[in-house]
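Structure (tokenized):
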């Protein structure tokens, strides 16, 4: 597949959702709970308590129970109660170092719980959560990469599930882009990366078609869809992660694939 970026036509209809590439789904099956199960087995009760202690430790025991309720089979999912959401979002914004494995496990757990719940809400339920969801995607990706290949592959499966489950255009393009990052990181289906680029590009264009102009922050590719991500230091996690995974695969991919990835990286940096 050498003709990328794609031209508009029947196979690239902006008004019609595009499914993830078949090869990508075959390599990392979509799963709601596989990543959660992986992390849950590696997070202690004390680590959960540390998450619950965020926001000055207010109502910590209540928050511990609320987190544990998210880890049982068939939990109640949807709009997260404010106290729990505050603790999880504060964990999301921690910056554990590369050697802080427990820190990344805690941040990954927080992002999974938040995004899993976001999958079950609509814009009418809680507009703010969906608007802020893209940031959860990039931190989930970054902590998954730090924790190694097993976590990265399961994170890819989780994002593929989320992409199907939550169709809100304010989130979907960021989810597909997160999947692209993990596909590059894991070296999966390298010859099919152009298909994934086409999928991400389609989601980004479709979001601009579906959203009201006042909901779009700028013309910047992808990040301009979100006022939260298209500002200050929020841009760097996206651009830096993309640059790092592309650089790690430099020389290992067909020239047309590397060229397409670098074009996307340049657009993300504009």
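Design, position by position:
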């Amino acid at each position: 597949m050498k003709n990328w970026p794609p031209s508009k036509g029947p196979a690239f209809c902006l008004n019609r959702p595009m499914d993830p590439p078949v090869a990508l789904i075959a390599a990392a099956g979509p799963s709601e709970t596989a990543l959660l199960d992986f992390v849950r087995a590696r997070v202690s009760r004390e680590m959960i308590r540390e998450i619950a202690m965020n926001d000055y430790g207010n109502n910590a025991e209540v928050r511990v129970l609320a987190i544990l309720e998210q880890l049982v089979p068939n939990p109640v999912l949807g709009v997260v109660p404010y106290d729990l959401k505050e603790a999880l979002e504060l964990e999301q914004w921690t910056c554990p170092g590369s050697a802080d494995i427990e820190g990344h496990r805690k941040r990954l757990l927080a992002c999974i719980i938040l995004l899993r719940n976001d999958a079950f809400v609509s814009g009418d339920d809680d507009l703010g959560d969906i608007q802020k969801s893209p940031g959860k995607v990039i931190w989930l990706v970054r902590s998954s990469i730090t924790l190694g290949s097993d976590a990265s592959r399961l994170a890819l499966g989780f994002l593929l599930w989320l992409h199907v489950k939550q169709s809100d255009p304010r989130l979907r393009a960021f989810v597909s882009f997160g999947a692209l990052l993990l596909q590059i990181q894991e070296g999966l289906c390298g010859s099919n990366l152009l298909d994934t680029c086409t999928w991400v590009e389609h989601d980004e264009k479709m979001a601009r078609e579906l959203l009201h102009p006042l909901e779009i922050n700028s013309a910047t590719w992808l990040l301009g869809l979100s006022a939260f991500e298209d500002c200050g230091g929020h841009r760097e996690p996206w651009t830096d992660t993309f640059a790092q995974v592309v650089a790690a695969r430099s020389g290992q991919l067909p020239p047309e694939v590397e060229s397409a990835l670098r074009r996307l990286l340049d657009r993300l940096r504009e």
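Reviewer-requested clarification: Confidence is low (pLDDT under 50) at residues 1-13. The CA atoms of residues 34 and 154 lie 6 Å apart.
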